[in-house]
Amino acid sequence: MTGQVDVDVVVVGGGPAGLSAALNLVRARQRVLVLDGNRPRNAATLHSHGFLTRDGVSPLELRRLGREEVASYDDAEVQFALVNGISAVDGGFRVTASGVRGAPDRDVTTARVLVAAGLRETLPAITNLRAYYGTALHSCLECDGYEKSGQPLAVIGETDGLVETALLVAVWSDDVIVFTNGSPFVSEEEERMLADRGIRVERRVVSEVVGERGELTGLLLEDGEVVPRTAGFVRPRWTAALEYLAGLGADTDDDGLLIVDAAGRSSVPGLYAAGDITPPGPEQLIVAAGEGAQVSATILRDMVFAGARSI
């Protein structure tokens, strides 16, 4: 990029992927600005599992610790801000963002941008479901399956991933019921296959989640029957919030996720991505952090070797 830039890399998203990348980049003596909208999709989750040395940590606490580590370096800044737009300027990028929680608005130029923002999450429209989401009901099997071992479990969703989810949930329990909530995403053949494995499919609409003293006890169906369950897993619909990239023309897949190569490069030179915003979508925190570290190495190599694809 010709001309002066304000920072070397702007990282959009302050989750494990973005903060891991930022930490590695600032340790490579790059000037880094992390912009985070402070709207993590896992905010309701009390405990996260499978992150080595941090098993059971709150995802919000993990993010807080990460922000503090990154911000402790002189050449790094972490700010709560919603990115409004990213445009190409003079071989680099201009990034504008609106500050949140009292933070100032930002308008900066940068040589490279790493998108590590999360996804919008839409749960099935079931009364009271969100009240149990993050405690009795979860979306990450690897994160929360162990804690639900042996319980009567529900798999709830309206997407085409229900069968795969149900088979995986059966690793932790022999009592699994799939609730399609009236959706057509489990075929009759798939239902027979699940039945052969001891997994029942309930096609009636779920009206409400039932509980006592904060503990889930069952799911109320539209005809009034309550199916006893004490925990379960939900298949949300995830959508990518990438309106701020509209002017760059970056390639996305059918789900709107940013397509990147094996090293994290998008179709736009200087634009990278890591974490949930790339296919296949939501993943464990430790996997996202690893991707962030990997992409930070790609960015550094591209800086040193002037954008060469390989050496």
Automatic annotation (TrEMBL):
InterPro entries: FAD/NAD-bd_sf, FAD/NAD-binding_dom, Ferredoxin-NADP_redctase_2. Gene3D superfamilies: FAD/NAD(P)-binding domain (3.50.50.60). Residues 8-292 form the FAD/NAD(P)-binding domain. The keyword Flavoprotein applies. GO terms for molecular function: thioredoxin-disulfide reductase (NADPH) activity. It comes from the Bacteria. Keywords: Flavoprotein, Oxidoreductase. It catalyses: [thioredoxin]-dithiol + NADP(+) = [thioredoxin]-disulfide + NADPH + H(+). Pfam families: Pyr_redox_2. This is Thioredoxin reductase. It comes from Mycetocola miduiensis.
